[in-house]
Amino acid sequence: MMDAQVAAVLNHLRERQATLEEQIAYLSFVAQQGPRFLAPTDIGALLELQNLLTPMTPYGAEFIRVGGANDGGYVMVDRGLANTIAYNFGIGQEVTWDQAMAMRNNRVYQYDHTIDAPPPVEGETVFYRLGLGAKTSETMISLGDALATHHNETRDDLILNIDIEGGEWDILPQLRPHDLAPFSQIVMELHHLLRIVEDHAFQARVYRSLEVLFGTHQIVHVHANNYGARALADGVMGYDVLEVTLVRKADWEFTDCQHLFPRPLDRPNNPFGDEYRLGDWGHSLRQLGEVLSRGA
């Protein structure tokens, strides 16, 4: 039997080790997150992307946070989030959003080909070991086929969550309006955005993806994921990973967004790091005009 004093010392050392591991994780995160510097000529690409991703405000909408306190939680519009069906593609081991949706009396269809099974969720969930793809195969399923599997193609009250680590740029250009029309609200993570300054083919694919997405839906919230990198060009900051919330255009009237980002409901994805502050994200055209006037 272990002496009580020895046990107390061991417990103290374990607690100290956990504290040190947290500090090391934080310092490692900070060391990696300093922005890299781009050429001044790259400012145009950053501002053009920012302009495309400018949110509007749905008239009369209230916002709430759905999901975890950090990574896995999203700021959403508080309408139509109960008594419906949610599709979540790319869940990994983070299911706080699924839990929050299931608690609102929603059935949640979970899709991820990279895990054998997700963590348990209290409520009605159905898991498929399939990823979201442009076409259906043994390991992938298209969005249209995922809807057809459950006979949901003609509904208009569904909720969609996509976080597939960059695969969105292969899938979005292939979607048709009727693939997105059933979803009243979408939350999505957009990855590798800084590639647009050096890869023109990728930039074209991103722009085409956004064109498809904006055919039916409007961004109403944007948040920078602080796990992602940043880059600075002539005073304008670009972000590699953004979380966006979209609502179906047909359901709302919109006004210019007057909010600063992050909103009070936002939280840093990495709790050891500070938020990335987008600030006056909705006025990139004014910024572009100022830049062009300086160069005139």
CATH architecture of the largest domain: 3-Layer(aba) Sandwich
Instruction: State the major sheet.
Output: 7 strands, mixed
**If you average the pLDDT, what whole number results?**
90
Oligomer: single chain
- Spatially, the strands of the biggest sheet line up as 7-6-5-10-11-15-12
Structural class: alpha/beta
Give the number of DSSP strands: 16
Instruction: Please tell me the total number of domains.
Output: 2
Q: Segments where pLDDT lies below 50 for 5+ residues?
A: none
| Helical coverage, percent range | 25-40%
The first-level CATH class name of the largest domain: Alpha Beta
Please trace the helix and strand order, writing H or E for each element.
HEHEEEEHEEEEHEHHEHEEEEEH
Strand-residue proportion:
15-25%
Distance between the termini: 81 Å
Q: Roughly how many Å is the radius of gyration? A: 21 Å
Helix run count: 8
> What's the CATH topology name of the largest domain?
Rossmann fold
List the defining traits of the structure above.
about 300 residues; three-stranded mixed sheet; 2 domains; Rossmann fold; alpha/beta
